[in-house]
Amino acid sequence: MPKIVKDIGPGKPVFVIAEIGINHNGDIEIAKKLIDVAVKSGANAVKFQKRTIDVVYTPEELTKDRENPFGDTNGDLKRGLEFGQKEYQEIDTYCKEKNIAWFASCWDEGSVDFIDQFNPPYYKIASASLTDDELLKHTRSKGKPVILSTGMSTMQEVEHAIEVLGKDDLILMHTVATYPAENKNLNLRVINTLQNKFPEIPVGYSGHEVGLIPSLVAAILGAYAVERHITLDRSMWGSDQAASVEPQGLERLVRYIRLFGEVCGDGIKRVIEEEIPVKEKLRRK
C-alpha cells in the first residue's frame, strides 16, 4: 500500500491538478482567468512551468527563425512566454486569495531556487527532465514532495530516477508526451504496471489527450492524482492549447471524478439505513 504524500494517496479524493503551464501566453491576466477556471471546477491545484531560458536552450536553438507574437526567433518566443518575479508574485498572491495551491515544473536548478521562495507544496519534474540527475538531486534538496512525470521514458530510466530521488514523498505520473496524444497510444494500464512495480509510491496520470474519458478511466484504474492542461479556448495561439481542456470540460471532468469517488464507497458490505423499510416491506423470510 502506498504512503499518503501530503494530500495524494490512499483514502484521499483524487488530487486534480489543472496545468496552466505556458497557456497564459505571457499574459498575467490570462493566467488569473485560468486560475479562476481551476477554482470554479473544484481542482485541487494549478501548475505552471519555469525555465531559465539561456540555461535550458542552446544559443543555436534560441536564434532559430520562428515567427511568433513576440518576434521572429525561437528565443523571442521562449522569453515572451516566461514569467518573472513580478508575475509569480502576483500568481502567489492571487492563488492565496482564491485558496488554491500552486506549484511549477522547474526545468533547471536556477528555476527550482526561484520557485522555492514561494514555498510550493510540491515540485514537479517534467518527463523531459527525468534523466537529468543533477536537477533531480537539486529538486529533492528542497525537502518537498516531488511529482515525477514518466513520459518518453523506459522502465529502466524510471527506476534510475527513483534511485536518485528516493521513494519517500514521491508521486509517479504515467504520461504520454505527445501533444495531443492519440487514444491508441495512452496505454493507461501502465498505471497498474507502475503500481505493481512500485507499491510504496502513489501513482497518478498526466494526460495530454483530447477529451475527458481517458482521464476518468485513469481515476477508475486507481490513479491518485490526475493532471490536465487547461485553456480558455483550444483555438487560442500556443503549442499546448490543442491538448488542453476548456473551462466547461474541466468542470465536467472534476465532477465525474468526484462522482466516481462517491459511488465507490468503502467496500464494506452492509445494510444501509435507507434499505431497512424496503427490506421490511419486501422480504418474505
Count of domains? 1
Mean pLDDT: 96
- In CATH, the homologous superfamily goes by the name Aldolase class I
Q: What's the Cα radius of gyration?
A: 20 Å
CATH architecture: Alpha-Beta Barrel
Spatial shape: globular
Order of helices and strands: EHEHHEEHHEHEHEHEHEHEHH
Classification by helices and strands? alpha/beta
| Largest beta-sheet details | 8 strands, parallel
Strand content: 15-25%
Distance between the termini: 41 Å
- Tally the beta strands: 10
CATH level-1 class = Alpha Beta
Count of alpha and pi helical runs: 12
Poorly predicted residue ranges = none
**CATH fold-level name:** TIM Barrel
Helical residue percent band: 25-40%
Main β-sheet, spatial strand arrangement: 5-2-1-10-9-8-7-6
How are the SSEs placed, and which strands pair?
Elements: E1 15-21, H1 28-41, E2 45-50, H2 53-56, H3 59-62, E3 65-68, E4 71-73, H4 74-81, H5 85-98, E5 101-106, H6 109-116, E6 123-125, H7 133-140, E7 146-149, H8 155-165, E8 170-175, H9 190-197, E9 203-207, H10 213-220, E10 225-229, H11 247-264, H12 276-282
Parallel strand pairs: 1-2, 1-10, 2-5, 6-7, 7-8, 8-9, 9-10
Antiparallel strand pairs: 3-4
Helix pairs in contact: 1-5, 1-11, 10-11
Short description:
With 285 residues, this protein is of the alpha/beta class. It has helices at residues 28-41, 53-56, 59-62, 74-81, 85-98, 109-116, 133-140, 155-165, 190-197, 213-220, 247-264, 276-282; strands at 15-21, 45-50, 65-68, 71-73, 101-106, 123-125, 146-149, 170-175, 203-207, 225-229. It has a single domain (15-282), classed as TIM Barrel (Alpha-Beta Barrel), CATH 3.20.20.
